[in-house]
Design a protein that fits this description.
single chain; 167 residues; Lipocalin; 2 domains; 12 strands; globular
Length: 167
């Protein structure tokens, strides 16, 4: 279960991390800090080699298939977050919130079943449909630095994400 620490609780979070450090432990990777703007910022999302981690990282959509994705100011950027506690998938298709499950084994990953809220948005519904379809077709993944790539069974790139805050 992820814990969220609001900006006002930053001192408490830092104290918690310091206490754990004094006991010779590190802070759990699933702790999220909440910025003043209310966005979750992942903490401790690096593998020892420097790449972002698949799990416990907010992944913002940059490319869907062969199309570069850039949400305008009136839209939210689609993103996913994989929580290893219960293998829970959460995120947004850009309009609707998504939730579901995932299974990962080495470089393979499968998403589903996945549910969406049912809001209608003036823009982005086609992109959201394509985004959900890409998640359903995903079979393998690769991380390079702060970019996550999802591939279909045929090895075709389905989606590319960058690590960061949910936008």
């Amino acid at each position: 279960m992820s814990k969220i620490i609001r900006a006002g609780g930053l001192m408490v979070a830092l104290l918690f991390v310091l206490v754990l450090a004094s006991l010779g432990r590190s802070a759990p990777a699933h702790i999220l800090m909440k910025s003043a703007a209310g966005r979750a910022a992942p903490v401790a999302t690096r593998e020892p080699g420097g790449d972002a981690r698949l799990e416990n990282t907010t992944w913002n959509l940059m490319r869907l298939g062969d199309k570069e994705e850039k949400a305008d100011k009136s839209e939210r950027t689609p993103y996913i977050f994989l929580d290893p506690n219960g293998n829970r998938l959460s995120g947004s298709g850009g309009c609707n919130r998504l939730s579901g499950t995932y299974q990962v084994d080495k470089q393979t990953v499968r998403f589903g079943p996945t549910a969406l809220t049912m809001m209608a948005c003036p823009k982005g519904m086609d992109r959201e449909k394509d985004f959900m379809e890409a998640l359903g077709l995903t079979r393998t993944w690769k991380i390079r630095g702060e970019e996550l790539e999802l591939y279909g069974e045929d090895g075709k790139l389905l989606a590319r994400f960058d690590a960061g805050e949910a936008k």
